């Protein structure tokens, strides 16, 4: 409940900040580049179905493994006010499972029966391409923009008794409103911050929230850690409905120059 309320509040703040950026033109005074390596170890929960069939629980039905992934993080900031800055991160969320079914399930028209062993893949890997503007750039840093999540994933099942196979390729790009806030603690190099991306239309929604504590040295070498949550509700996207959440610890080491 607390996390849901926090997301709602940050969504409202994001909309306000997006409006604010049109009235407060801020930009970097020089070209800045950052390269980093992030690690995220989330737990995965939720369910999905295809074409309105019965829900399939990722844990109870398929025993899907929790993913863990490392990723490359790149960002470029420049002094040209009209052009957005850019941030890129690849998110590998490929999970596998093997389970003896306790009941019948149906996916993409194929029925898998109780007692059958099913091998499954649940892959929501995607690229984050963030186009953003700096609203504030001092001890309080505030960025607003657009987060393009470009999914290139797959959901598939293979049965053991009747050689049934079913799969759905996920090829979607979701435009999320993006907000990043960072507060530098005086004379210490430490900072606290939050990043949020949010999207909602009809019965589909996505929320990506990171809360972090970090340290950056005078040389630009830094490290930050915290918690990251990504939830996705899809309604008939490539014949797939989802209600899932990834939630876990996050760490990122980087060099800013």
How would you describe this structure to a colleague?
By secondary structure, the protein is mostly beta strands. The protein is 7% helix and 65% strand. The chain is built from one helix and 15 strands; from the N terminus they run αβββββββββββββββ. Strands 1-3-4-9-10-11-12-13-14-15 form a ten-stranded antiparallel beta barrel. A two-stranded antiparallel ribbon has the order 6-7. Strand 10 and strand 11 form a beta hairpin. The longest helix has 19 residues.
Give the tags.
mainly beta; 15 strands; ten-stranded antiparallel barrel; Lipocalin; elongated; disordered N terminus; 1 helix; two-stranded antiparallel ribbon; 257 residues; single chain
> Helix/strand/pairing class, anyone?
mainly beta
| Strand segment tally | 15
Percent helix, as a range, is: under 10%
Radius of gyration: 20 Å
In one word, what is the shape? elongated
Query: Strand order across the biggest sheet?
Result: 1-3-4-9-10-11-12-13-14-15
Question: How many discrete structural domains?
Answer: 1
Q: How many helical elements?
A: 1
- Give the ordered list of helices and strands: HEEEEEEEEEEEEEEE
CATH domain fold name: Lipocalin
Mean pLDDT: 86
- The N- and C-terminal alpha carbons lie at a distance of 39 Å
Uncertain stretches: 1-10, 12-25
Q: Describe the biggest sheet?
A: 10 strands, antiparallel, barrel
CATH architecture: Beta Barrel
Instruction: Quote the beta fraction.
Output: over 45%
Q: What's the CATH first level?
A: Mainly Beta
